[in-house]
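Now for one specimen:
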Amino acid sequence: MPEFMLQSTFWVSVLQIIAIDILLGGDNAVVIALACRKLPVHQRNKGIAWGVFGAIGLRVVLIFFALQLLALPFLKVVGAILLVWIGIKLLQHEEDDGHANVHGSTSLVGAIKTIVVADAVMSVDNVIAVAGAAKGDLNLVIFGIVISIPIIVWGSKLVLRLMDRFPAVITLGAGLLGWIAGDMIVSDVVLKPYLAGMPSWLHYLSAALGALLVIVAGSWLAGRKKEETSTLVDLTEVAVAGKTPKGK
């Protein structure tokens, strides 16, 4: 076993990457199913396998470039802000499934192309989050993605049911994104010199504050949106009742 796999920090980061891929990549399984639904039965497994392989390859390339970009000044700060936004958005109820533009293809090559392109478009948030969790280590990226993609594809239904049954899983996932964001900020190349003499627990404090920010802000916005929706429904019912003829 390679030496880097014997370090506890490696496995902590791997678990973070797997959690991120499952939370932010659940729709990938739906995309694969939609892209392959018009294929002949004997070609569907091939379409899924090659589509997943292409998606993994493209994801690794995108994250490789993201890792290089995060070494530039202030980009980790920008990435952290994006992660906070993604985490808050994760806690909001999405009414639109976002799959209306994913069309099935009758050819194997067409289905594979659809899967790869759709995955690239949908994976921007995933790429940023995984790059932050990997902390510059491409081995982590490859290892984490190779493990998590099959979980998403073949275990997505179980994962989605788990999320529906236990909403706390979503909250914990959003908090994880905030944790990574808080840790990213203090590791930016511009801020590092100023934090050189600071105690080591500063990273944990910053990460904890990031997680708290996402959970509190996301929950508050979700609650406010729910109240506004409920008020709108009540007003609609009153308006409809007012137009109803008496005696009906």
